[in-house]
Design brief:
By secondary structure, the chain is of the alpha+beta class. It has 5 helices and 11 strands.
Length: 255
């Protein structure tokens, strides 16, 4: 299909949607009742062939209630919930009393509803006529059945729920610019080097009468810690920790 043919088809659908909008507007003023389900910017439409005997429209509240000591129960007002519209009806296999002229076949109506439920974008409900008339984006849920006494006719019940579009607001952070127009680079302050928590080891020269036990008791307060000194000075002391000699320089690790 050439691009010109595509454009012609698109323009025809757009013109048809405009005519339909004018018709809906006129029906609202004249009080003519009609129910339409549409999608794809009103280019795809289904008119409910037989108006239901009863339509239920509910506007649920989403308010919170809290109990305040000394006051009692207090209501916190919130935004109203999405409206819900319900009715039951049938798609007739043949024209009948109260049916619109040239209605779509029951299977076409059923396929239309299935298509609406599959597409990602919300559908639209248009209800013209009386005081309850409305036009809103919506989601659709329905159930269908067939009865033996009326072959080909599809009976259904449908629930329409208002669709409210939400969007997340993005915050933009402006960067400061220099006078010449160039962007300033973020400056990171240099922190001073932290002092090491590790203490330096000290030196001790062995005197006459010293032993590792006494030296450990002198530096650590506990003679049992002589092994700390011995392990740090094995090369100086040798294999026997009990043999140390005056003049030897030992490294005393800090605790």
């Amino acid at each position: 299909m050439t691009s010109k043919k595509k454009k012609k088809k698109v323009s025809k659908a757009a013109k048809s949607a405009k005519k339909w909008k004018k018709r809906v507007s006129a029906n609202n003023k004249s009080g003519t009742y009609e129910i339409w389900l549409t999608y794809n910017s009103n280019k795809k439409r289904l008119q409910i062939p037989v108006l239901p005997e009863k339509i239920e429209i509910s506007y649920p509240e989403k308010n919170d209630t809290v109990y305040v000591y000394g006051v009692g129960e207090v209501t916190i007002k919130k935004h109203p919930g999405a409206f819900v519209m319900k009715w039951s009806g049938f798609f007739p296999a043949a024209e009948c009393q109260g049916c619109i002229s040239n209605p779509k076949k029951p299977k076409e109506c059923l396929d239309f509803l299935k298509k609406v439920m599959k597409i990602e974008k919300p559908a639209k409900i248009v209800y013209t006529g009386g005081a309850c008339r409305l036009s809103s984006q919506c989601t659709i849920d329905f159930e269908a059945s067939e009865e033996g006494g009326d072959l080909g006719t599809i009976h259904y019940s449908i629930t329409i729920t208002e669709y409210k579009k939400t969007s997340i607001r993005k915050l933009k952070v402006k960067k400061k610019k220099k006078k010449n127009g160039s962007k300033k680079k973020a400056k990171v302050k240099k922190t001073s080097n932290r002092t090491s928590s590790k203490s330096k080891a000290s030196k001790y020269t062995v005197k006459k009468g010293d032993c590792l036990w006494n030296i450990a008791k002198k530096f650590y307060g506990k003679g049992a810690k002589y092994t700390v000194i011995y392990n740090a000075n094995k090369k100086v002391i040798g294999g026997n920790p009990n043999l140390i000699y005056p003049g030897q320089v030992l490294t005393i690790p800090k605790e």
